[in-house]
Amino acid sequence: MTLARPKPHSFSVSSIAEAHSRLFVFMMLAVLLATLLSTLAVESAAAQDIFGRISGTVTDPTGAVIPSAKITITNATIEAIMWRQSCQSAATA
What we know:
Elements: H1 13-46, E1 56-57, E2 70-75, E3 80-85, E4 91-92
Antiparallel strand pairs: 1-4, 2-3
């Protein structure tokens, strides 16, 4: 019984260069995608503000403005309570 010898691989320089070119393009796209995703993550994190703002007008049940009303602001998450007084026009700031 005779065993057949495997044929040696024949790679041309152009096929190796083409493979390297495709790998380079793939790696550049991966780097570009990673950069884009990390930039979007940083932008969304930077858009968050640690200060809240409350504005409005203090009125009674009939709709009349209540000047110099005492306003209580409660943050239930951290159990913080703040008191403010509206201005003479009843606008809060």
